[in-house]
Amino acid sequence: MSLPTRSTDGGAKSSDIVRINVLGTNIVVTNTLEASADLLDKRSLIYSNRPTHGLTMMRDLCGFDWAVAFAQPGKYWREQRKVYQREYHPQAIKRYRRTETQAAHTFLHNLLASPEDFFRHTRYVLGQVLIYSAYGVKTKNHDDPLIATVEHGVEAAVAAMSPGQFLVDILPIMKYIPAWFPGAEFQRKAKVWRKSVHKLLHVPFTLAKNLQDASELPDDCAAKSFLADVIPSSADPTYMEYVVRSALAGAYSAGTDTTVSVLQSFFLAMTLYPDVQKEAQREIDSVCRGRLPDFSDYDALPYVHAIVKEILRWNPAVPLNIVHASAQDDVYRGYCIPKGSLVVANIWAILHDPAVYADPESFCPSRFLRSDTNPTPEPDPDAAYGFGRRICAGQYLAHEMLWITIASVVAAFDIVKAKDEAGREIVPPGEYHYGFMQLPKPFRCEIRPRSVEHEKLVLGAVDL
C-alpha cells in the first residue's frame, strides 16, 4: 500500500475529504484545514490511534516501538507526552536559548569557513542544539562520534518509514521470513537499522547518566531534572527511566530531519527570492544596529518570524502527516468511517489551498503580517506540526531554533545565485527528495559576508 507523498490535485479536483479502499483497508485523506481539524482536533478521542499494521518495518523489525509517535494511546503514551509537555512548553524552552544562540554563532563561523558545505552545516547546528538540550552533552564538530551515532539512527528511521517501500508493511506475516531467505532483503536492512536505532535510544542517555553520576550534568538540559529527581522518586524507577530515555531519543529523531529540511529550504528561498532577504536585512539592521540578533530581539523582528512560517508553508518537511487510525465507527459529512480506518491529513494540500493562501506557490512572508495593504493576515501554517493529540510537542523549540539561526544568517550574510563559468546566474531548480519526509536536493548558491564589518561580527561571535 502506497500513498502519494505530495499532492494538491486530489483536493482541488475531488473533495476536501477523499475515501479510498486499498486491499481492504479504508483510507480517508483530508485535503483542507477544516476537514482535518474536524476529525483530528475536534474528534481527537476517536482519531488519536496509530494503525495496527502498515508500520511493521518500523516498529517490529527496526525496533522503533518505543517512539511516542508510533505508540497507541495508553499509560506509556501519556507518560511520554508528560515528558514533552514538561520540557518543551513555551516557558520551559527559554532555558535553551543560550545553547541555541551559541549554535547559531558556530553555524556562522562554519558558513564563513566553508560556505559551499552549507547543507552539511545545517545538520550539525541542529544536532548540536538537540543533543545538548536533551542530554547536556556538548558535541565538538561535524565528525563528533555522538552526532554520527544519532544521525545513523535517524536515517534508519526515515528509511524504514518511506511510504510503500516495504511489502512487509502490507503483509505483516512476512516479518517471520528469515533474513537468509531469497528476496528477504528487507530483513537484512532491518538487522542493520535495528542496531542504529538501539544506539540512538541508549548511547546519548548513557552519556547523560555518566555526567549525572560525576555531578557534571548541566542544569540547562532536559535530562537533568529527570535523572536528579523524577526518576529516583518514581514508584517504578526502572519503568520511568525507560519512558524518559525513549522520550528524549524521540525528541531528537523527530526534530532533526524535519528542522534540517526547513533550514535547507530557507537557503533555497533566499536564493530564489532576494527581495525577501533584503526586507529581512532592513528589519534586522534597524533593530540590531551593528550587532548580531539575539533573543532580546525576539518580539522586534516580526518579518523574520514570518519567514520561518512561510518556509513551513511553502515546502512543509512532512507533506503527509503520520497516519492516524479511528478507534471506533464514525460518520462525517455522510461518510461512514469504520473503526480501524486510516486517516491522513494532506499537509501539502492544506498549506497550498488557494482558497486560504493567495498565490500559494510563491514565497511571500508578508502574507502573515497585518498592514494597511493586508488588513487580514493569512492563517499561520500550524498544520505543518500535525493535529490533535499527535501534534508535534517540539514545535515551540523548533520555531526558536529556526528563528535565531535564520535571523543570524540573514544579519551577517548575503545568499545569492551562483554563477557558471560564463558568468551566468544559476537558478536552482528547487527539486526535493520525496518520501515520508521531503528534503531539498543539493543546489549551488553563493554565501558571502554582507561587508567587512559583518565578517568581523561573525569572527567576533564567541560562546556566551
TrEMBL record:
Membrane topology: Single-pass membrane protein
A GO molecular function held by the record: iron ion binding
Predominant place of localization: membrane
Regions that span the bilayer: none
Residues reported to bind heme: C392
CDD domains recorded: CYP64-like
Cofactors required: heme
Pfam families in alphabetical order: p450 (PF00067)
UniProt keyword list: Heme, Iron, Membrane, Metal-binding, Monooxygenase, Oxidoreductase, Transmembrane, Transmembrane helix
Superkingdom of origin: Eukaryota
One GO cellular component, as annotated: membrane
Pathway in which the depicted protein is active: Secondary metabolite biosynthesis
Subcellular location as annotated: Membrane
Family to which this protein belongs: Belongs to the cytochrome P450 family.
Protein name: Cytochrome P450
